Amino acid sequence: MRKLNSFGLNSTARWFCEAFNIEELSEAVAFAKDRSLDVFVLGSGTNLILGTHIDGLVIKNNLRGRTFSENQLKASSGENWEELVRSCDLKGFQGLENLGLIPGTVGAAPIQNIGAYGVELSDRLKSVEALNLFTSETVTFSNTDCEFSYRDSKFKKEKEWCVTSITISSGNELVWEYPDVRIYLEKHNLEMSSGTIYRAVCVARKRKLPDLRRFPNVGSFFKNPVVTAEKYKILESQFPNIPGYVYRHGIKLSAAWLIDSLDLKGQSIGGVSISRQHALVIINHSAGTFDDLKKLSKLIKTRVHSAYDVSLEIEPEVLPEQPI
Ligand code: EPU
Fold it and tell me: Is any atom of ligand 1 closer than 6 Å to the C-beta of 102?
């Protein structure tokens, strides 16, 4: 499985197949049911940590297709996310520009409710179609049915769903207030549009985040912790520079800042290390193992907890599910 996860961990699977359409997907699920195998559906593996062995059937999702109509866009879950955003840019379909250059597939996007530069997928999504891997029924979920929150959704908790397509409505407003976007537009004297925001986002991501091809990684390794306003006040009195942003009912801290403030950039265990470019990204610099990663993750969590009394939660999915 090493080539199927962007972190490049060595891993094996008991069974593996690819599904290019819903019939093949259903056939693979039936095969697993007949043999009482667990099923794991894989996108492009860019937000995934693989354990050393997956005792079940791994299905690589290759469902393709995207259709634009006047008031909506429907895309199959095996499509590449960035290719979808780029085609929106070319067709002038507004709404996904802030989510440019996010690695991964369309199907993974609602599962973890991808977000960047002031927009989350849940702000844009109309509905999700999913196949139930236990009952083989296909269900359409409205935005509210998906129970979205920060990097979370119904599908992250209920593993029986395999997302088959998503639908985005047109008529989305532009969001440009995030400093990286605003400053880019001002500096280059650009008018605000879906296209210029997309360019600003691409420039920011290329500058800030380590290149996947050179430094295998899974993007942000931890979620930004959300604390209560009272907890934030206490932290602010002790650490006046600590960033905090109002998020839903609490204050979102910057996990990157917490890690960076402890001088942990560059810290390494075995073949994995904290990127020197962005403190929230762990890279596999030389044949790192699942164990190395587990140890580094624990070290970061412990250091942040003892300095700030804040618990970090990891952001990518772990397969098979286990604490790391
Ligand atoms: N910072 C540091 N040190 C660093 C990097 C950042 O102190 O090495 C501080 C700075 O103060 C900076 C703040 O952290 O202003 C926030 O950094 P950044 O703008 O890079 O955003 P982030 O909170 O670290 C989140 C998402 C990213 C998304 C960006 C942009 C999460 C877990 N991560 O990162 O998403 O691209 O915002 O909106 O919410 C991902 O989920 O994999 C991901 C990359």
Answer: no
- Identify the residue whose C-alpha is closest to ligand 1 atom 13: 254
CATH match for 226-319 among 3.90.78.10, 3.30.565.10, 3.40.605.10, 3.90.1150.10: 3.90.78.10
Three-state DSSP state, 57: strand
Residue 306 burial (10 A CB sphere; 0-12, 13-18, 19+): exposed
| Residue positions annotated with a catalytic role | 151, 220, 315
Report d(CA 35, CA 57) in Å as an integer: 10
Q: Is the pTM of this model over 0.90?
A: yes
Confirm if 217 and 284 have CB atoms less than 8 A apart. Answer: yes
pLDDT digits (tens, 9 = 90+) for 233-292: 999 999 999 999 999 889 999 999 999 999 999 999 999 999 999 999 999 999 999 999
Alpha carbons 2 and 159: distance in angstroms, whole number: 23
Distance (Å, whole) CA 194 – CA 175 = 9
Q: Which of 87-91, 97-101, 234-238, 246-250 is the least confident region?
A: 246-250
Q: Confirm or reject: Cβ of 242 under 6 Å from ligand 1.
A: no
